[in-house]
Amino acid sequence: GDVYKRQYQRRVRGGRIGTMAAKACGYILRAAGKSFEGIGKSLQGDLAYTEKMSAHRAVKAYQGIAPTVAADAFVAPSASVVGKVQLGAGASVWYGACLRGDVNNITVGSNSHIGDRSVVHVASEAGSLGDKALSTTIGEGSNIGPLSVVHACTIGNNVSIGGSSKILDGAKIEDGAVLEAGSLVGPGTVVPAGQLWGGVPAKFLRQVTSEEASALAIELEAVSYTHLRAHETPEHLVCRLLLEKKKKNKKK
After folding, report:
1. Which pLDDT score is estimated for 5?
2. CA distances from 84 to 56, 62, 71, 165 (A)
3. In sequence order, what DSSP letters do the residues of 189-231 get, joined into one string?
């Protein structure tokens, strides 16, 4: 028994020594790498390039201009809201979405929602199809489906954009219009109020019925409810649960 015990102890000590040796070698190699990096930079002088890594920030200034975000608006941690962007009360930008106001302004009205991994951008004179700088405006109570591209265009109030749709430079979606998922609205196209469009390129299909408008309003309310829960702090959560419990007790 003592022989096996001594053999086990030798193996443990050997393993520890090997681990310590590996760590020491790693430290020496990393230190040598840093030294070579410093020598290379000094030889390059002003031509040396250093890549700086920073933690992701959902809301970030661009060229000294920071986005304006309402106190009760929600921006997901993995979203990007950059530069000249204005988010109204109750608006939300969901996970992976990007609003880039670098060369012009983006305005998102109150209670409008930008779906996951959607891209909202603008156009400068040089980058516009019509050689005209174009901002992007999204009205109030509108819902942009996930994976959509909204580029240098105008979207009215209470508009519903299906997922994976693309709306290009100078296009205009008027109040209460609905765009089917996967549609492409070409540059300068106007979708009149209260109409349903779809296809590639998008074309008029029919008028939006009152039942559909009511269903879309309920859907928007559901998105707003989810947004409120996502934005809820622990203190708000406790208060809400207490109020709900109080209401249940009153009913009993």
Report:
1. 61
2. 18, 8, 17, 24
3. -EE-TTEEEETTTTEEEEEPPHHHHHHHHHHHHHHHHHHHHHH
Q: Is the pTM of this model over 0.85?
A: no
Tokens of 36: 């070579």
Count of beta carbons in the 10 Å neighbourhood of residue 160: 24
44 compared with 76, residue with greater pLDDT: 76
Q: Which residues of 196-206 are buried (b: 16+ CB within 10 A; e: fewer)?
A: bbbeeebeeee
- Which 3 state secondary structure label does DSSP give 154? strand
| pLDDT value of position 247 | 67
Whether pLDDT at 99 is above 60: yes
In 3-state terms, what secondary structure has residue 69? Answer: strand
CA distance 155 to 143: 10
149, 118 contact by CB (below 8 A): yes
